[in-house]
Design a protein that fits this description.
The complex is a heterodimer.
Chain A (H helix, E strand, L loop, with lengths): L16 H6 L15 E7 L5 E7 L1 H4 L4 E5 L22 E2 L5 E7 L2 H8 L3 E6 L27 E3 L2 H7 L2 E9 L11 E7 L2 E6 L4 H12 L6 E4 L15 H13 L3 E4 L15 E9 L5 E13 L20 E11 L12 H19 L3 H7 L17 H12 L12 E2 L2 E13 L5 E7 L5 E4 L9 H13 L6 E4 L16 H24 L8 E7 L12 E13 L5 E11 L6 H20 L30 E6 L23 H13 L10 H8 L3
Parallel strand pairs in A: 1-12, 10-11, 14-15, 19-20, 23-24
Antiparallel strand pairs in A: 1-5, 2-4, 2-6, 3-5, 7-15, 8-13, 9-10, 9-12, 13-14, 16-17, 17-22, 18-19, 18-21, 22-23
Helix pairs in contact in A: 5-6, 7-13, 10-11, 12-13
Chain B lengths: L1 E3 L4 H10 L3 E4 L5 H6 L7 E4 L9 E4 L15 E5 L4 H7 L5 H8 L4 H6 L2 H7 L7 H7 L2 E6 L3 E6 H4 E3 L2 E2 L6 E8 L5 E6 L10 E8 L4 E7 L9 H13 L2 H4 L5 H14 L10 H30 L1
Parallel strand pairs in B: 1-3, 2-3
Antiparallel strand pairs in B: 4-5, 5-10, 6-7, 6-10, 8-9, 11-12, 12-13
The chains are: A alpha+beta, B alpha+beta.
Chain lengths: 702, 307
């Protein structure tokens, strides 16, 4: 038993840990619908653009064990109003390679997969248009960006200030297409009872999925139930509905029994989204002391023909540093690619690579310590919204990180430290991510014995939300964790938005705090502070954004310090150690938070050194569409990572004082690695990932 | 698809002869990937996992004459085709150091427990990690058919094309005969991450002081794994003419470098998603220089130990 005054802050073990270790926590594929399950497999288009000219399902239909073959010719019609690629099997038109053009339902997954190979499909195809370039004439400005951000922001006379700047840099950075690849493949298991649909599903928020099923199948919200108690990772790929949920529900309706569809790893590269590639031009102007006079961040990225997804890549540049003249722009190319989607810190992750690399380049030109350059450009207020900060401790993160890492006395010169065959360097970058919260409802019930049930449609996608929410609830109710039973991951529970945008605990936790206050008030005022024998149940709601969100600029911050070693003969790169310090407000669970921040940073190292989906511009597909070829960092690629956070509390953001930790760790991390790489080698790699061959490309040797 | 599971070597050969449509499967770390990706749909799988003869390794002394090319009167390890990498690491680090070093770089612990040298030879991928040290050591692949009995094929002649080998349709790989190391051996591999990686390029070298020869093996930089014969002869000759085999004097840096260049020249790499042809050549030169430098330093240490 803990003797702490409050549970929030403690490194409590995951309450779902024992069930997960024993394999008794049911993921979507392992749910028991109470009847035999039929399996679904899909035929995917082999062209990026065109129209199906021939599709013969007869051989597949004749195979023993095949229950149905769904094609655009016979699939049930879905309701109008579905966006992007959700109207599956509704048309003969093909918009991206990998689009589902037919689906087989069979007694076993093996039969279904075998039948896929028996379906012949022909296409009238046009050549794929998949190459992103800043020179494309069809680049356009979207009306607005993801999450409602303005497409452009222009303050002052940027070009004039850049021309007049004593010191300036002008550089273009590129990040490749990336795929999320959570360890659990997307899985949807659908069962119809009359006109009511139950979907056991791997997603980041059951309520997010319900709406599209209601639209697609012409149902009332009460006729759809989505259940997702345990989810094996997501990173954004499970935030929104994808074709898999529509297909499973459609197939179950056709065959009249439960159908499960689990994507293959290769299908994860076409059906559930990706991070857009970016081409980013950064121009910085400064005075001789390193004070920025102008910042220009111009982004080119892609979206799909059938869906506009405008990643907010330059938005961190709108808040991070002071400068009187500033400009951010976003331009899109519509390509024959699958629809992009959010991926861990959409916007900040690619945007901070460019901004924080450019800041390092500016520090080099100035001959200034890159930590000092950042401190000199610390803004007193949000430089574009002209609002005070709720809390902002970036400078403290930089100073604390520098101390923990041993930054003092660092030689600014690049390429001068060797240990045997290794060139050694160190680098720094800032981190930032917006602090937000969303509408959420909650119900808390107490029985006569003082046992509480807390119900909210929150999601634990591997983050630790099961545990952290129970800690928050126990504190808010003035009880211990054993007296709180949490229920999450079910659309029948009170409404909540999904896990995304680092808003989970801020939204769900605050709704729990508000509801717990109401409950305790009622207990105090009407029941003498004791639960009545018959129990008591209270419904509460968090309306949405903090009332201070309009008057204050709210963000989390961090600083990464990284050591990089580069083999001067082979160009291989190692990251033996790093220090990250965060201002993320109150930390609810010290143990799961450390895992989140460590995972975010590791994903940033992975982005810097390994990740990139290679597009074949002739045939339009992703060449490395499996985990043998799409490399993510392994244990052997991650060295000693020192994670810590400042003891801060942002009461303007929410009553718990937290800022969210799901995404801050990845922001800036790739830039810190690239900056350290430069310090080790003198070579500036501006296009990720930093693979061994690029060392020789930059040396001009190959 | 039939799943055929013989429990003796004789039965396995009989099944192989009857079922030309069967794909032999050992650890399954290649075959199962192919099936999963629908690269092939064989009529049958011939599972060799229950054949006890394949899971043994023994030492045969030189006088018995197993036909290996190496080891003047030395011993040879007869490595059953089904011995997994994890056992090579545990049991054979001293006898077959080059192969054991390569085995340590294969996949993950799970893959090393399942994967076998016999399977690696059967797949005959140019990127197979076991191939370079087998080439450098002068290993011989023992294959057998029910109709014609045993055939011994030098590793250097075993690989006939991209993922093709010298096996006849009715043959199975029984064992690999690897001369025990009489001198230092090294293995190097470059990948685009630090583990769980298909080699961008790989290199193995072996010093054979007993016959004053040098062995090499190149991986992932040609349609097949291959030796660098000119580099081998060059280095052995230079060591001979400078009297270095006897004196065990320092290896001139220029000689290691020239060896590396000759190794790189022996490759025929391509550009692909894992790396460019130019990078493959460059990294081979680096690995060859490094590995021969390390091997030579070890050779010099051996003398001090003996003295």
């Amino acid at each position: 038993m803990t003797t702490m005054d409050r549970l929030v802050g403690a490194g409590v073990d995951r309450i779902d840990g024992p069930a997960k270790v024993r394999g008794t926590a049911p993921y979507a594929y392992e749910q028991d619908p109470g009847e035999p399950i039929a399996h679904l497999a899909v035929v995917q288009s082999t062209v990026n653009r065109g129209r199906i000219s021939r599709l013969d399902p007869s051989r597949a239909e004749a195979l023993p064990g095949v229950l149905a073959v769904l094609t655009p010719a016979n699939a049930p019609r879905l309701g109008k109003g579905l966006a992007s690629d959700l109207p599956v099997l509704q048309s003969l038109d093909v918009h991206y390679q990998g689009q589902v053009v037919a689906a087989v339902v069979a007694e076993t997954s093996e039969i279904a997969k075998a039948a896929v190979g028996a379906i012949a499909v022909g296409y009238d195809a046009e050549p794929p248009d998949v190459a992103l370039s800043p020179d494309r004439e069809d680049l356009y400005a979207p009306e607005k960006l993801m999450a409602g951000f303005a497409t452009d922001s222009i303050i002052g006379d940027v070009d004039g200030a850049l021309a007049a700047a004593v010191v300036s840099i002008d550089a273009t950075y590129e990040t490749p297409t990336q795929h999320h690849n959570p360890i659990e493949m997307h899985t949807s298991m659908a069962r119809w009872d009359g006109d009511s649909l139950t979907l056991w599903d791997a997603d980041q928020g059951p309520h997010n999925i319900v709406n599209d099923l209601v639209t697609g199948f012409g149902l009332d919200a009460g006729q759809v139930r989505v259940i997702s108690p345990y989810v094996g990772g997501a990173f954004g790929s499970k935030a929104f509905t994808h074709p898999n949920q529509m297909l499973a529900a459609m197939a179950a309706r056709v065959v009249g029994r439960t159908v499960v569809y689990e994507l293959t790893r290769q299908q994860m590269f076409s059906l559930v989204g990706h991070r857009t590639p970016t081409i980013q031009r950064l121009r910085l102007g400064a005075d001789p002391e390193g004070r920025l006079t102008a910042i220009s961040h111009e982004v080119v990225e892609h979206t799909a023909r059938i869906a506009e997804f405008a990643e907010q890549t330059a938005t961190p540049t709108r808040v991070l540093y002071a400068a009187p003249h500033r400009r951010t722009t976003h331009r899109l190319a519509r390509l024959d690619v699958p629809p992009p989607t959010i991926m861990r810190a959409p916007g900040e992750t690619p945007g901070m690579f460019a901004l924080e690399s450019a800041m390092d380049e500016l520090a080099v030109v100035l001959g200034l310590d890159p930590v000092e350059l950042r401190i000199r450009n610390e803004p007193e207020r949000d430089p574009e919204r002209d609002l005070p900060w709720s809390t902002r401790n970036l400078v403290e993160c930089l100073r604390t990180g520098a101390e923990r890492f041993g930054w003092a006395g660092r030689d600014l010169r690049p390429g001068v430290r060797t240990e045997g065959r290794w060139l050694v360097g160190t680098g720094v970058a800032s981190a930032t991510y917006p602090t937000r919260r969303r509408k959420a409802q909650c119900r808390i019930s107490v029985d006569g014995a003082g046992r509480y049930v807390v119900e909210i449609d929150g999601s634990d996608i591997g983050t630790g939300a099961w545990t952290a929410l129970t800690q928050i609830a126990a504190d808010a109710l003035g009880t211990d964790m054993a007296s709180v039973e949490l229920r999450i991951g079910d659309s029948r529970l009170p409404f909540a938005g999904g896990a995304g945008g680092s808003t989970g605990l801020a939204s769900w936790g605050t709704a729990i705090v508000f509801t717990a206050r109401d409950l305790r008030k009622q207990l105090d005022e009407q029941h003498g502070g004791q639960p009545p024998a018959g129990g008591l149940s209270v419904d509460g709601e968090l309306p949405g954004e903090s009332p201070h969100a309009k008057t204050h600029s709210m963000h989390a911050y961090g600083a990464h310090f990284v050591e990089v070693r580069v083999d001067r003969d082979s160009g291989e790169v190692r990251v033996p150690r790093a220090t990250s310090v965060y201002d993320a407000g109150t930390i609810v669970n010290a143990k799961t938070a450390r895992s989140q921040l460590l995972g975010g940073f590791s994903m940033g190292v992975s982005m810097a050194l390994h990740e990139g989906s290679v597009t074949d511009e002739r045939y339009g597909h992703y060449v490395n569409h499996d985990l043998a070829e799409y490399h993510v960092a392994t244990n052997a690629d991650i060295g000693e990572i020192d994670i810590s956070w400042l003891d801060v509390d942002d009461q303007l953001a929410n009553p718990i004082g937290l800022k969210g930790i799901g995404e801050i760790g990845i922001t800036g991390a790739a830039a810190a690695v690239a900056n350290a790489y430069w310090h080790a080698t003198r070579l500036r790699i501006r296009d990720l990932p930093i693979t061994p061959d690029k060392y020789f490309r930059e040396l001009g040797e190959s | 698809m039939d799943f055929l599971q013989p429990t003796s070597w004789a039965d396995a050969l009989a099944v192989r002869a009857e079922r030309s449509d069967a794909v032999p499967i050992a650890g399954g770390t290649d075959v199962m990937v192919d099936l999963n990706f629908d690269r092939r749909r064989p009529g049958a799988l011939l599972d060799l996992g229950r054949v006890p003869e394949l899971r043994e390794w023994t030492v045969e002394d030189g006088t018995g004459g197993v036909g290996a090319t190496g080891g003047v009167g030395g011993s040879t390890v007869r490595l059953g085709a089904g011995v997994p990498y994890s056992r090579i690491i545990d049991d054979l680090g001293a006898r077959l150091p080059g192969l054991a070093m390569a085995a340590r770089t294969v996949g993950s612990p799970q893959i090393r427990i399942r994967g076998t040298v016999g399977g690696n030879l059967g797949s005959a991928s140019p990127a197979g990690d076991a191939h370079p040290p087998l080439l450098a050591a002068g290993a011989v692949v023992e294959v057998e058919s029910a109709a014609r009995g045993v055939r011994r094929i030098p590793a250097a002649e075993f690989f006939t094309g991209v993922k093709r080998n010298a096996l006849e349709p009715d043959e199975l790989i029984a064992a690999v005969l690897v001369p025990e190391a009489v001198g230092p051996q090294q293995f190097c591999k470059v990948g685009t991450r630090n583990a769980m990686v298909i080699a961008v390029s790989a290199f193995a070298c072996a010093l054979h002081p007993d016959r004053r020869a040098v062995g090499t093996g190149i991986g992932s930089a040609a349609p097949t794994p291959r030796r660098a014969p000119e580099a081998e002869e060059f280095l052995a000759g230079e060591l001979e003419s400078a009297g270095l085999w006897e004196s065990r004097g320092d290896l001139p840096d220029g000689l290691a470098r020239a060896f590396g260049e000759r190794v790189a020249a022996a490759a025929s790499p391509i550009d692909d998603v894992r790396g460019s042809a130019a990078y493959r050549r460059h990294s081979l030169a680096v690995m060859a220089r490094r590995s021969v430098t390390w091997a030579w330093a070890e050779y010099q240490q051996d003398l001090r130990k003996a003295a």
